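Complex 323.
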Amino acid sequence: LTLLSQQFSQTESWFHRSAGLQSGSAPHSQLFPPAEGVMLPPESFKNRVVFITGGGTGLGRAMATVLSQLGAQCVIASRKLDVLQQTAEDICSRTGNKVHALQCDVRDPQAVSHCVDQMTSLTGLPDVIINNAAGNFICPSERLSPNAWKSITDIVLNGTAFVTLELGKRLIQDQRGASFLAITTIYAESGSGFVAPSASAKAGVEALYKSLAAEWGRYGHRFNIIQPGPIKTKGAFSRLDPTGKFEKGMIDRIPTGRLGTPAELANLAAYLSSDYASWISGAVMRFDGGEYVSMAGEFNDLRRVTPDQWKMMEAMIRSTKGS
Ligand SMILES: CCCCCCCCCCC/C=C\C=C\C(=O)SCCNC(=O)CCNC(=O)[C@H](O)C(C)(C)COP(=O)(O)OP(=O)(O)OC[C@H]1O[C@@H](n2cnc3c(N)ncnc32)[C@H](O)[C@@H]1OP(=O)(O)O
Ligand SMILES: NC(=O)C1=CN([C@@H]2O[C@H](COP(=O)(O)OP(=O)(O)OC[C@H]3O[C@@H](n4cnc5c(N)ncnc54)[C@H](OP(=O)(O)O)[C@@H]3O)[C@@H](O)[C@H]2O)C=CC1
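Predicted structure with NDP bound:
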């Protein structure tokens, strides 16, 4: 069984196989196929402990899978213990490496401290911390109650801060280095209407991580950020595109013509958390198929202009004399 698991971890995983061309992708997305398989060498995370918040579902689950395939002992934590346990079992049965499930509501600093106590007994302190847990929903800002604002900002900003400070302090005390990674979003930079609490909280997370990258390097701690563009997960799409009507328009504005895949994100997270990235700290890695710059550029809509229309417009421009 162990041999089989090892062979499996060196080739491909169940979710990589499902990462083919998604429906709704543009034809040119064939030129940007999502790479299958795990990128780093096998056992890159052997003898490493990885702690992932929100590791039971979506992107957190994908990151736990890849890191487990690379030899890590993973600890996944969130509110729903049954979901975490099922994920832990699934991953462990596929990779042969231990995955621990711990219940933790990151909004509650005491729960976070208790979770870290439990992890310390199970695995010791982690070498890699991935702050991935989040909450979000689309809502016109004038409809937000104070509690709606608080529910998102408490998970995203306070939750990340509680986890990071609790683990950071204990690691410093034990004179242990670590890699911290936060999953934010491209609109942490631009802000975005209709998700103002999420945008505000994610921007706060980025400020926290850049601050600590500067402050805690002396303790052997690295802090990096991934800003993903759209990657289809139930958690995100059910709350941000509940009718499914916006997906096509979203793909149209992504220059690579498709959504990202959990496997691609997981490989990037693994790289940034690995020794291969030990000189990367304070970095913000946009991971969005080009969506951000595509939405930002004033003239980018000119992509719709046909060659004949260009001929006509060029003639008009060239015929202009003076101002
Ligand atoms: C042009 C359009 C393009 C569309 C693109 C679509 C796809 C885009 C993909 C790109 C994504 C980019 C970024 C993604 C970022 C993410 O974070 S995605 C991850 C999302 N995952 C989750 O949210 C999982 C966890 N979420 C939850 O558990 C819940 O959703 C919640 C609400 C965050 C927290 O749950 P809980 O604590 O149980 O909270 P409640 O008690 O239910 O609610 C607390 C208050 O919030 C109010 N509320 C809840 N839902 C809404 C809503 N939909 N609208 C308004 N208000 C809401 C609720 O009423 C409570 O307030 P009150 O007590 O005052 O009533
Ligand atoms: N998918 C996408 O397109 C994008 C996602 N992101 C980011 O990626 C990350 C993962 O999102 P995704 O996988 O799509 O969505 P999911 O909804 O699947 O993931 C969110 C996770 O957070 C956990 N969580 C929520 N509240 C809490 C809490 N109070 N305490 C502990 N854990 C909590 C949830 O578990 P539980 O319910 O068990 O607590 C869940 O596992 C998030 O940070 C999100 O902002 C960013 C940009 C794009």
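The longest helix spans residues 146-173.
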